Amino acid sequence: MREKNQWKEKQALRKDRARGLCVFAKEGFYMKNKKTILYIIGALVIMTAIFAWLMAGTGGVKPPVPSGRIVAPHELKNTSLHEENQGKKIWDLQIASLVYDADRDVNVLTGVTGKFYQEDGSNIAIKSDAGEVNMKTKTITLTGNAKGVFSGGGDIVGDKLTWSSITKLITAEGNAKLTKDDIVATANKAIMDTANEHFKLEGDALVQKGVE
Q1: CATH code assigned to 75-209
Q2: What are the average pLDDT values for consecutive 10-residue runs of the chain, which has 212 residues?
Q3: What angle do CA 51, 57, 61 make, to 5 degrees?
Q4: Smallest Cα–Cα separation from 146: which of 161, 165, 124?
Q5: Which sequence spans correspond to the domains of the chain?
Q6: What is the pairing mode between strands 106-117 and 198-202?
Q7: In sequence order, what are the beta bridge partners of 150?
Q8: Strand 183-193 relative to strand 206-209: parallel, antiparallel, unpaired?
Q9: Angle at 198 between CA 194 and CA 203, to 5 degrees
Q10: How far apart are CA 156 and CA 148, in angstroms?
Q11: What span, in angstroms and rounded, lies between the C-alpha atoms of 110 and 97?
Q12: pTM (2 d.p.)
């Protein structure tokens, strides 16, 4: 009977030990996972602190803030422009490059050639390194070796030539020179009425006749 009781005590002790080992194992597993989680949290905190320090040192990365009106540039190569009235051509231009300037609402040109047409069927052949077309004011401005040649004879040159399809006036500004038949006129500014071939000179005007 005594031996039987001792055997029961040993079995109970073994069970208690097994429970203790199980509890210890569970606690150890929990502690291990808890440490791992703490390590991860700590690493994240450190990384966040480093990132914040770097951002503070460089002023931060901020998205660009647009100012003013943004228009995507659009360039056309080897193109042409023209204006008509009731099927009748008023002017036409051949252009090496055209860019629309939305801020000023004008077409900016380079490498310009073309013609301005008159009511009587005559025309002015023009050529320049650059220019602009303003469709609102109906004006064409030419700059850079700007020159206009009249189909009836003669030509007009200047640092800048401006032609209006409304008034039919062509204006030369800066080193203006107008040649017609045997007459050569120079001035700071020359304005010619292409409809009746009358012209007006302004600033240091000089008219010479019989000059070849």
Answers
A1: 2.60.450.10
A2: 51 49 41 47 44 38 35 74 87 92 90 92 94 92 96 93 92 94 92 83 90 64
A3: 70
A4: 161
A5: 1-62, 75-209
A6: unpaired
A7: 124
A8: antiparallel
A9: 110
A10: 5
A11: 5
A12: 0.63
